Records
---
Amino acid sequence: MGEIIYKTLIRLGIFLLVLWFLKNYFDEKYFLIISLFVIYFFIFHPAYLNYKKFTEESKNILTGTLCSSCKHFDESAILCTKYDKHPTENYIPCEGNDWEPK
Ligand code: SF4
């Protein structure tokens, strides 16, 4: 989740700079429309798609892994708090050795 926010902020910074440099090339009324278009299609829409992909992948981890039933698992961040690593469907940081029931 943090990665999505981080990448979105990077994209936002880059495109705001690009818009800043392009503002003299467009008439003011078109510039507003172009700005809204760029902000939606290059910043918000990719962030939404990444968030959707993250929730889809998270769903599988939350329901189908050993970590989902472990007390060291933080569901909101999909994180093993003991190892400070993100488990996946194919990767369990402790390999099951430190699993403890919730
Ligand atoms: S301790 Fe092991 S089983 Fe528990 S959340 Fe971490 S990696 Fe998963």
---
Amino acid sequence: MSHTATQTSTAHGWQLEEDSATAYERFLVPLLFDTSARDLVDRLQVRSGDRVLDVACGTGAVARHAAERADEVVAVDLNPGMLAAAKEAVPHPSIRWQEASADALPLSDGSVDIVCCQQGLQFFGDRSAALAEMHRVTAPDGRLGLSVCRPLEHQPGYQPLVDGLRRHVGQAAAEGMASPFGFGDRDEVVALVRAAGFRDVEVRIVIWPLRASSPEAFLRGETASSPLGGVIADLDDEVIDALIADISEGLAPHTDDAGISFPIETLVVTAGR
Ligand SMILES: C[S@@+](CC[C@H](N)C(=O)[O-])C[C@H]1O[C@@H](n2cnc3c(N)ncnc32)[C@H](O)[C@@H]1O
């Protein structure tokens, strides 16, 4: 999710000619993040007059929905490639895009009413510092809304993908694909949010349906949107065939006449300052 180099390969006819940020915007945002972003903005009741901060904004899935309702939106991300794709996908005049780390937010104390962080916390090197920063920049009556994926055992579509990558590509590839599901234990997340100073912390398990036209399309979209794009494109055809066969077998219970469909489980956490 943070890789931005452009890769080209003829392996298996896969031509990875777009960078991972562009693939993320084209595949993952419509697959899930646009819908979940709208839901997060709804839960936080973002409205006219609000100053909103989107932390780890990626290509701006949350920022674009917030900007439809609020007057000011600041969107920060560590990855310049994601910000470049965001500016192209969301040329919204009221969004200020800024390159920054979540643990050193370029904003003054109490300067925003609402802080959003969709699917970012699990990737931060120092989650406590990031949450402390979110608390610092939130106004006294402000609100926080964040989401993370629940652990892999709650993800029936991603478990076969991770297992297949481990078997056919290697442990590092499997760990890369599993990383979005690495920090989704409810008690741990709540403890961290409370420790940062937030109060009235509430958690909802929110389950979204995902759909792809085939296991191959799922593998291709997920890996192209991640640092694994180049790794997969460089594999021999026989390895890709075996990988797809393996993933297809794992996804058989989730296969229908239109492709594959399965739930993805997330935690949505809201809190007050
Ligand atoms: C799964 S994406 C989520 C993006 C976006 N929030 C969305 O919903 O589509 C995770 C994002 O976290 C960003 N990220 C990772 N570590 C970060 C950090 N320390 N500070 C800011 N952004 C970070 C990545 O660059 C990536 O854009």
---
Amino acid sequence: MAKMKVVIIGSGVAALAAAARLTQAGFHVHVFEKMATPGGKLSEKWIGQYRFDLGPSLFTLPENVEEVLDLFGKNRSSFSYKRLNPVCEYFYEDGTRFSAAADHTVYVEKLSEVFNEKKHTIEKFLKSSKATYELTAPVFLKSELSFSKLLFKADTYRAIFQLYKLPLLGSLNGSLKKRFRSEKIIQLFNRYATYNGSNPYSTPAMMQLIPHLENGIGAFLPEKGMYDISRTLYNLAHENGAVFHFNSSVEEIIHDGSKVKGVRVNGEVISSEIVISNLDITPTYRYLLKNFKAPERLLNQEKSSSALIFYWGVKAVFSEMHVHNIFFSDNYKEEFDHIFLRKDLYSDPTVYVNITSKECTQDAPVGCENWFVMINVPHLAGQDWPDLIEKSRKRIIAKLSRILKKDIDSLIEVEEVLTPQLIQDRTGSFLGSLYGNASNNTFAAFRRHNVRSNDLKGMYFCGGSVHPGGGIPLCMFSGKLVAEAIKEEYL
Ligand SMILES: Cc1cc2nc3c(=O)[nH]c(=O)nc-3n(C[C@H](O)[C@H](O)[C@H](O)COP(=O)(O)OP(=O)(O)OC[C@H]3O[C@@H](n4cnc5c(N)ncnc54)[C@H](O)[C@@H]3O)c2cc1C
């Protein structure tokens, strides 16, 4: 029997996972990618002698990649990574320092010592974070957004009977304030809201599940850098028959109002009964699915934050920093009010510095480091970006120089910038938002598009703007969910 064809638009991490899984299941997969290389946001670039991962820097749940390797019977060691210790270095303006150890006992002891909180209170919070993840992941994150499917899952009933363990009311910040006295520890745990581009002062307390991923299960780094995630998935799909068409921007998804018929690329029609869009859901409906009614309620949700990134090759080594480093703002509430309410930038932003060369020595010349310097910013809303970029650069350099006690500006050897506009232009993310919709209210998680269309047969979706959400682990889940949905329907 001839293999069924699947066309995938885009080659972000969710699409690569779906392409590999569908190839292995016997589908004939064609991926059309508008850029010259695979990976989307999860790409890399050399600037002079420095290598940079362009987007994601924090890697959790590596078993998502291993699961795909296992499907092909590949040795897991072909994708090597290590668990980071310390997980993150935190710097506060008043000189307070906290190094988050990977070891649970040391982590709790140090949190207690530095922030003067009882160990028991910290343990209780981390236990609650773990319970929230373990109860919601099988029911929500690893399942399609479908009432009928959830009805037949044992995990659904397990979660229902343990609802009392879940923080169902209030915001993340509100629930942290009830547990802790130290403003600094509250700020540290509030930061996890930014992992899906949300505001800790309005995102639901359920988001407390994220610290468990990083501290309970672990933060990891592939030995060849983050891009090795894309490379590994691409190689698996490609070696097993998926055909990749680079520099090929899809212009239209062809349909007859009830069924998908194919796509149009460079004026040429490519027929296929099954099409997966890995492109952000908003441009998929607005520009590719012409003459088709868009799900306005889902598309009009508040968007997540964006980011401003400076890639700096730095001619020095900073022993007090590790792979992940946070330099906190002195007024977190003001910072998020600026990002989400005023849609502008706060004068004292929290600065994140990622340095992969701490572990991947090939990423920078000897005696130098590759700094990925990022601040959270609002999505595109008519701001004067050239002015904001110039101001931000000065503010970031002043803050880092102040805290690290070195003139950072004079150490920058090479430099490039990634802006919300470039994020939108390069990857199609609507308004440059990093994670599709924000999760700034209780129902936001349920207002993401499912991986399959109920109205157009053969139309599927995967990636950061659809269920279960943005970030590498959730995109890998959506890649799996979409492959399972297609197998269920067509095999
Ligand atoms: C700066 C930054 C930092 C981040 N940090 C983290 C982090 O630390 N940890 C984490 O887990 N996540 C992080 N994320 C989020 C994470 O990168 C994304 O959620 C994830 O990579 C999105 O993958 P995706 O599958 O949705 O596809 P995307 O990466 O969005 O790729 C979509 C692809 O579609 C292609 N495309 C668009 N239009 C067309 C068209 N018409 N025809 C053909 N192809 C098209 C694009 O070129 C692109 O390759 C970060 C993101 C950014 C930008």
